[in-house]
Amino acid sequence: MTRLLRKAELHCHLEGAVPPALALAQARRYGVATDAFMKDGAYVWHDFTSFLGAYDAVSGLFRSEDDYALLTETYLDDLAAAGAIYSELFISPDHAEAVGVGADAYVAGIGRGIEAVRARSGIECRMVVVGLRHCGPERVEWAARYAAAARNPLMTGFNMAGEERMGAVADFARAFDIARDAGLGITIHAGELSGASSVRDALDLIRPTRIGHGVRAVEDPGLLARLADEGVVLEVCPGSNVALGVFPDFPAHPLRRLQAAGVKVTLNSDDPPFFKTSLEREYEIASRIMGFSDEELDTMTRTAIEAAFVDEETRARLL
Ligand code: ADE
Ligand code: ZN
């Protein structure tokens, strides 16, 4: 039973965390048909590309500042009830712009949600802006400039998500420079859909302190040693990896091998209802299927807090 363990996650996409019941309520409210991306109360997709399509469709159901406040509160209330003390939410101003909300109203709604749930449960949350790789370097630079100019104390990091198999990492280096120069924490999706060379490129060209997934570094022992040496933290999402077919099942998942190689690892839910998971389930899988002890799970929680994009006072309080 991991319910009572302290938990933290560094890797959850806000638009990927919409409970299907909330998506249905929003769809009814805005008169949107859901058959293309939902069936029997669950999201429907069959590969990464169709997952991104379903994700975009669900994002399109949130159309105002209040909608985003509601979504943020729904996610954080659930997480706090599962024993989480900290969460980093990946937010996508591109999705807000696409639906016509505008990035400022989007961020304001999320910020309201974060503060409301912190007031009632104590859970801390920060926003990490993501640029979408499949939208190209110009859009990712736009997202970085937006994050850099915001000077919002709840917006503390920058990331790139989306289709890892598109474009070269080097094309996105300038976006990360903009974010880093503004004092934002840096993480990047790599080593999920593409192999170890993608992680190597990310380390060489982006210099992140964390990597989203990074699990395919396991294909290269030299790279594992480098990750361990440099203390780069992996945001590992086992449920997502198995759902997307990166690994066939949980016993084949490399979380234990990464940890045994001295790599710093954390547990994360990524896009929980799309992958039929939750942060609590990730801890449960690590415990029951992968054989991590409660002490090892607590170490992962502490690693997440140590790697979190927060001020030192908040970090000390959470640790
Ligand atoms: N966006 C949302 N989920 C993602 C994932 N697992 N990989 C890349 N981009 C994403
Ligand atoms: Zn992700």
**Can you tell me the overall shape?**
globular
How much is the average pLDDT?
A: 97
**Tally of discrete structural domains:** 1
What is the name of the CATH class?
A: Alpha Beta
Helix amount: 40-55%
Ions, cofactors and other ligands present here are: adenine, zinc ion
Strand order of the largest sheet: 1-4-5-6-7-8-9-10
* Fraction in beta strands: 15-25%
First-residue to last-residue Cα separation: 22 Å
Discrete helix count: 14
- What is the count of β-strands? 10
Describe the structure.
The chain contains 14 helices and ten strands. It is globular. The chain is of the alpha/beta class and 319 residues long. The two termini are 22 Å apart. It has a single domain, classed as TIM Barrel (Alpha-Beta Barrel), CATH 3.20.20.140. The chain is 48% helix and 17% strand. The mean pLDDT is 97. Helix 7 links the parallel strand 6 and strand 7 (185-190). Zinc ion binds at residues 11, 13, 161, 189, 212, 270. Zinc ion is lined by residues 11, 13, 161, 189, 212, 270.
